[in-house]
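Handout for the seminar on molecular recognition.
Each group receives one record of this type.
Step one: identify the two inputs.
Step two: read the structure output and locate the region that could contact nicotinamide-adenine-dinucleotide.
Step three: write two sentences on what you found, then compare them with the reference statements printed after the record.
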Amino acid sequence: MVQSNPEHVVNKLRNTFASGKTKSVNFRIKQLKALAKLLDENTPLIVEALTKDLNKCEIESIIMEIDVVKNEIKYILMHIHDWTKPERPSKSLANVLDSVYILHDPYGVVLVLGAWNYPLQLALNPFLGAIAAGNTVLLKPSELSPATSKFLAEYIPQYLDSEAYQVFEGGIPETTALLKQKFDYIFYTGSSSVGKVILEAAAKHLTPVTLELGGKSPVYIDSSADIEVAAKRILWGKCANSGQTCVAPDYILCSKEVEDKFVKVAKKILTDFYGEDIKSSTNYGRIVNDRHFQRILSLLKGSKVAIGGDSDASEKYISPTVLVDVKATDPVMQEEIFGPLLPIVNVESVYEAIEFINSKEKPLALYIFSNKKKDVDQILANTSSGGVCVNDTIMHLIVMSLPFGGVGNSGMGSYHGKFSFDTFVHNKGVLYKNLGYIGELLSCAKYPPYTKGKMRY
Ligand code: NAD
């Protein structure tokens, strides 16, 4: 890995931004199309990198990484001409002769810090949002997914303009050095604890940030739900990428009766998904590194395993594991699991579920499985979370017209679709006054000497 120092890289990007090159909408479109081409022409290499990093299977890599980015590019290309146009807001009688409009100014030099769990999608989606908005961008992929990081560092310069977009590889020392530079916007995806480091560094330059963080995303299931369908959708959300998904269902809140039904159907569903020997299934992933592997296993302490509980350190394999009789004080309920453990905590009513959810930090996602609209509305009205998906998990992320982001401990700001564009622009309000005689007559009340007569205007 040979790269110049952060100061030089940022200066280069700042000079390119000052040249105005990235502000041209046609230039942005060309770059976005080049990024789509990069994905199209190198799909096998991307799949190979994702397999190396996370043992992701081909289909999951295509659906949950490559296609997500391609769809985002398509959506942006469809709308970019509309979004970049100056907006004409309403105006009052006092400005009848004037123009009032909003310009969508790119911020300048944007730093995007990617995460390792969806190392392609979580690096490229904010990256392309910043491009669409007309910025120059420094992308730092996660060092914890080195194969994907290397791929991005090698291939982005082959397809995109290197004066405007740079990839910077590295871990904590490199990120620390980058954060000393002045950026015009920082977009970070990762843990809440590192989120605080980013926010502190950004504060030194008053740099605005988006923080896409994590948290324990709860699932509430009541007895009106179809438990088999609910279990299928929850286990899919939990087991994808071995639970290393920021919006993975973290734990379940339900009655004992629902828990019994859930456990009964879950065994069969897991066999349907992965066969009798889950470890040998090509559809099931691995934990990213030893640190996370040991951390997840340590969360099992004191919990009653109803399904799974198997692991193999040599492969960083942990089987899908359902835990029952879990108490709020158990280790598994103290932090975001970010692995394939699914604890079930018993609650007797929707009110108890709401109280439980509100006793914890605000989650990134909240899932409700119910056919009782009144109870669903009750939860929606009385809890706070980044987003909500009723009767499914994770799927709210791919609705392009919805903002995706956290609140409180799960983050600040949002992106996807138009929200990505909005994230990376400053909305500059412009009042363009008329200089003529009538315009001046309408303005005269503001000049001294102030008289009661003028106050009538
Ligand atoms: P992390 O937050 O510990 O590390 C992320 C990056 O931060 C690394 O690349 C590392 O180099 C850098 N870093 C770590 N310590 C640093 C320091 N002191 N100074 C500067 N940089 C530092 O990653 P993690 O905890 O393994 O990530 C998992 C978390 O990310 C989970 O909480 C998950 O929910 C969250 N996440 C959120 C989203 C989202 O979209 N909201 C997506 C993926 C992951």
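Reference statements: The pocket of nicotinamide-adenine-dinucleotide is lined by residues 115, 117, 122, 142-143, 171-172, 175-176, 189-191, 194, 197, 212-214, 246, 336, 338, 364, 406, 411 (CB under 6 Å). The chain has a mean pLDDT of 96.
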